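Please fill in the sequence for the structure shown.

STRUCTURE ENCODING:
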């Protein structure tokens, strides 16, 4: 949370030859790789490449090879090979003066296409309206495995607010919009079990049976409530997006400091936010 005004607080076709960049990324020399081991090697390379790409966020826009290696846990040689392949493919760019890597033009183009595919140009004005109506910050997110990924953030007009950068990944069980999405599962007990061992961030974090019970309440009520379960002093109301909104496993959260989101204000806002999101 920031107190400074204005401060943000993806049969039968003819196989195509691999590009040199993909061959470098996978370490493969045979385009007809059929062995299970070779297939796993290629999948591992893709996973590692995605790991590197996720390191480029609002807090860190450029990296050296040694920094990427340290942050990812990969060897310097593997990191260098992957970065070179990503650069050749347009996903990364390299400053010729400093030799530091940054996201490339293809990443920008893909991001814009994803925005359009998910309907963000249509949803963003509505999210801005919700922020104006509530006076609090608003997030749009989409589930990705055990996390919610922030797709868009509208900051509150208040100097004291809680901001989250686009692209930020939040564990689904400590996210208001994440729990709203989880509550739609047919079998809540199995859904929670499938999450595996959950991180406990503080004494308010819900896991196991307590999380299942909370999800039942969310399902009956129509909105989720995060009561300082991840960030002290921050509360959030989360609602799952309706299927027609265009964002699969998506949700919206209204979040702010406890000094404004009092028990009474949360009780008022919860149904209002749920009704607003249902109309999206």
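FILLED IN BY: designer on duty
SEQUENCE:
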């Amino acid at each position: 949370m920031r107190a400074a005004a204005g401060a943000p607080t993806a049969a039968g076709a003819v196989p195509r030859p691999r590009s040199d960049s993909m061959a470098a990324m996978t370490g493969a020399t045979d385009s007809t790789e059929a062995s299970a081991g070779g297939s796993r090697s290629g999948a591992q390379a893709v996973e590692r490449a995605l790991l590197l790409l996720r390191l480029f966020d609002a807090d860190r826009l450029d990296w050296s090879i040694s920094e990427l290696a340290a942050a990812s846990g990969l060897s310097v040689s593997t990191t260098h090979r992957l970065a070179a392949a990503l650069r050749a493919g347009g996903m990364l760019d390299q400053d010729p003066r400093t030799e530091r890597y940054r996201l490339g033009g293809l990443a920008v183009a893909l991001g814009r296409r994803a925005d359009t595919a998910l309907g963000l140009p249509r949803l963003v004005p509505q999210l801005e309206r919700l922020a104006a109506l509530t006076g609090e910050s608003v997030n749009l997110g989409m589930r990705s495995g055990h996390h919610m990924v922030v797709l868009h953030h509208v900051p509150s007009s208040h100097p004291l607010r809680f901001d989250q950068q686009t692209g930020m990944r939040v564990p689904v069980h400590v996210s208001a919009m994440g729990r709203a999405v989880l509550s739609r599962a047919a079998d809540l007990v199995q859904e929670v079990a499938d999450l595996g061992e959950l991180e406990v961030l503080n004494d308010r974090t819900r896991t196991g049976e307590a999380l299942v019970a909370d999800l039942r309440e969310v399902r009956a009520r129509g909105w989720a409530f995060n009561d300082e379960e991840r960030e002290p002093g921050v509360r959030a109301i989360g609602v799952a997006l309706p299927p027609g909104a265009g964002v699969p496993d998506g949700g919206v959260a209204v979040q702010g400091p406890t000094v404004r989101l009092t028990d009474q204000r949360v009780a008022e806002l919860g149904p209002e936010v749920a009704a607003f999101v249902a109309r999206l």
